């Protein structure tokens, strides 16, 4: 329940008494609302909220979770994340770790696409990509490589240079990974990835500590590609309907028709 407590504290810290219409008395050692103030807004006892934030109370009711979400002014993605953290599923028996793979039909679909496309595993490992997808995102590594895109973003110099708005891309990646971590809390490989990046990248560690949450399914990416120069591309992340957490990531833009495999 530590993730729940950390998430609640991070969202409590971004609110002020003035913003939520409460009178403020005395100096505050830390920013944001006090526990007692948030409990008052949510209509729960301060003792119960404190136990919840400290991980001493589990399986809060739906009504309490919704009351906290309203008091914390959570958006749709944050609200869903709070529900997953506060009411986790049953603990399952750990299975032997297996390498994540894409279905052959999914690979064939991506290979047939006329736009850059990548199959991503739940931890943002590349499970497959078509030639355009490879050359757009990682032409400096072998086509048969299966890197982790989040690891490349934070630890690979070439990938860092690819994104002209790297800070924006990094924030988006961490916010998306937070949702995955809430959904697959018992995934040891995901925990290892977060641990590795937290140690090797101070920027990742700082972003992760803020508990950003966003389900990034579409938007615009700004790239400086070594072959095509400055690009402004639309992306779509299509989640596969099989509870695997895998996604197909596609890119579209007028200049991409020039990006062909040799």
Summary keywords:
Beta-Lactamase; 434 Repressor (Amino-terminal Domain); 2 domains; 262 residues; alpha+beta
How would you explain this protein's 3D organization?
The protein is an alpha+beta fold and 262 residues long. It folds into 2 domains: 2-86, 434 Repressor (Amino-terminal Domain), CATH 1.10.260; 104-258, Beta-Lactamase (2-Layer Sandwich), CATH 3.30.450. The protein has 13 helices and 5 strands. The protein has helices at residues 2-13, 17-20, 35-42, 46-53, 62-71, 76-86, 104-112, 131-138, 149-155, 157-162, 166-183, 188-200, 202-209; strands spanning 117-120, 126-129, 218-225, 229-239, 247-252. The longest helix is centred in the middle third of the chain and has 18 residues, at 166-183. The radius of gyration is 21 Å and the shape is elongated. The mean pLDDT is 88.
Spell out the helices and strands N to C.
HHHHHHHEEHHHHHHEEE
Discrete helix count: 13
> Can you count the beta strands?
5
Kindly report the spatial arrangement of strands forming the biggest sheet. 2-1-5-4-3
Helix coverage percent: 40-55%
The span between the termini is 51 Å
Structural class: alpha+beta
Average pLDDT confidence is 88
**Count of all domains:** 2
User: What share of residues are in beta strands?
Assistant: 5-15%
CATH topology of the largest domain: Beta-Lactamase
């Amino acid at each position: 329940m530590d993730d729940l407590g950390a998430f609640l504290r991070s969202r409590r810290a971004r609110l002020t008494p003035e913003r939520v219409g409460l009178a403020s008395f005395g100096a505050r050692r830390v920013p944001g609302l006090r526990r007692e103030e948030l409990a008052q807004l949510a209509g729960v006892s301060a003792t119960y909220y404190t136990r919840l934030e400290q991980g001493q109370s589990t399986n809060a009711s739906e009504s309490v979770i919704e009351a906290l979400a309203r008091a914390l002014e959570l958006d749709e993605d944050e609200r869903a994340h709070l529900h997953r953290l506060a009411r986790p599923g049953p603990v399952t028996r750990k299975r032997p770790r297996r390498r994540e793979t894409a279905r052959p039909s999914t690979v064939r679909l991506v290979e047939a696409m006329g736009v850059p496309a990548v199959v991503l595993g739940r931890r943002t490992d590349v499970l497959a990509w078509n030639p355009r997808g490879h050359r757009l995102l990682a032409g400096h590594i072998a086509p048969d490589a299966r890197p982790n895109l989040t690891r490349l973003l934070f630890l690979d110099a070439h990938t860092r240079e690819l994104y002209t708005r790297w800070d924006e891309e990094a924030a988006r990646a961490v916010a998306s990974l937070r949702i995955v971590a809430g959904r697959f809390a018992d995934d040891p490989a995901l925990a290892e990835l977060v641990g590795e990046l937290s140690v090797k990248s101070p920027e990742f560690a700082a972003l992760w500590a803020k508990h950003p949450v966003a389900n990034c399914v579409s938007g615009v990416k700004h790239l400086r590609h070594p072959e095509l120069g400055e690009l402004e591309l639309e992306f779509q992340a299509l989640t596969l309907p099989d509870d695997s957490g895998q996604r197909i990531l596609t890119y579209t833009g007028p200049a991409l028709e020039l990006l062909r495999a040799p």
